[in-house]
Amino acid sequence: MRHKHLEEKLEKLIEKYSTTGQDISSYLEGLLYSDYLSYWDYINLDTLLTLQAPKTDFPDENIFIIYHQITELYFKLIIEELKQISNNGKIIKDNGQDLGWNKKLSFSFLKERLERIIRYMKILINSFDIMIEGMTKQEFTKFRMSLLPGSGFQSAQFRIIEIYSTSFKNLSLNNKSTKTDKNIIENFYWSKGATEIDSGKKTYTLTQFQKKYSSQLISLTKKLKKKNLWEKFKEVQINNEEKKEIINLLKEYDLCVNVKWKLAHFKSAVKYLKASGIIKATGGTNWQKYLPPRFQKIIFFPQLWTKEEKKEWGISWLKKL
Ligand code: HEM
User: Fold this and answer.
1) Is residue 140 part of a domain?
2) 295-312 pLDDT per residue, tens
């Protein structure tokens, strides 16, 4: 009985390897000699724990680095879900290979993905206190100087999340859609962030970011024109009850990214940068005018909010904080 079970497995393996012209017996021999997988190898633990390279000896700098790294990992998880939605549930490897385990763009698929994304965002929002309360201001103001002109503003994954979520128009200055590549990059709303408060000129932080990521962000914007989250929502075949549920999730996601995360983040900037003398030292950027959601008014799904809600964007939530 047990052998029969093994024979069936073996048949399947032989078939799997023979379709690519490979010989299963060499792989089986390899199994005889290979070591067992360990936890530390599987998750690359040793490498992971060497990825923190503080620029100063202030212990709190490690908190700052690790929290940014944690955030980027959650951003990566969010992008994984957004990618799946954009591909209608097809699982496509980075080399373009379609694995053939396709799910369908359906109500339950979309709902589950959105719930996962919101769960990740909530963790980020709720944990932002690590930045706001969890570091000593004295240490922060010292080590932050050693990190210039680097800024979380240069997080490309954050921009990728935005591009996957909505049409370019909703991320652009004055809600314009533009045709040329140069226009796209210069019209993203964030091209007016990280500018010098006095002259309005781009800071080195911004120009370096654009130099590294412009072409990637432009091609993603074009690729997702008809495949972003909003377009997928319009495409999915669902009944009215289901539609209501998805709309509520989309609204929750919109609030999470564009109000709650942004406000938690803004709070950290206020705590450390305002009146600490560091404002000038960070290159004197326009962050106080740029970061608050009520000024940015970035809304992924403006169609889902009332006129009044859009007018009040980021204001009532600010009062609650
Ligand atoms: C004490 C903690 C933090 C402070 C004081 C801070 C400060 C700032 C400031 C002043 C800006 C505006 C751009 C500039 O002038 O450089 C900015 C932008 C930004 N930061 Fe942070 N930041 C902190 C933590 C983080 C963390 C943990 C992340 C996670 C990746 C992050 C991601 C971002 C992003 C994505 C932007 C652009 C936001 C937008 O365009 O609306 N920041 N930050």
Assistant:
1) yes
2) 999 999 999 999 999 999
My answer on whether omega of the bond before 149 falls inside 30° of 0, hence cis, is: yes
**pLDDT by residue (tens digit) across 146-205?**
999 999 999 999 999 999 999 999 999 988 777 899 899 999 999 999 999 889 899 999
Residue with tokens 């060499």: 26
Residue 299 CB-density burial (10 A; 0-12 exposed, 13-18 middle, 19+ buried): buried
Q: Which residue CA neighbors atom 21 of ligand 1 most closely?
A: 152
What's the CATH number where 129 sits?
Answer: 1.20.58
Let me know if residue 282 belongs to a domain: yes
- Residue whose Cα lies nearest atom 14 of ligand 1: it is 194
State residue 321's pLDDT score.
Answer: 46
Kindly state the tokens that stand for 267.
């709070």
In a domain? residue 73: yes
pTM reported for the whole predicted model: 0.92
Q: How much is the pLDDT for 215?
A: 97
Nearest-CA residue for atom 6 of ligand 1: 269
Structural domain span for residue 238: 63-82+103-320
192: closest CA among 173, 177, 205, 166?
173
Q: Which of 265, 267, 270, 271 to mutate to test the pocket of ligand 1 (most atoms within 8 A of CB)?
A: 265
Output the CA 155–ligand 1 centroid distance in Å.
9
Number of domain units in the chain: 1
Q: Is residue 254 part of a domain?
A: yes
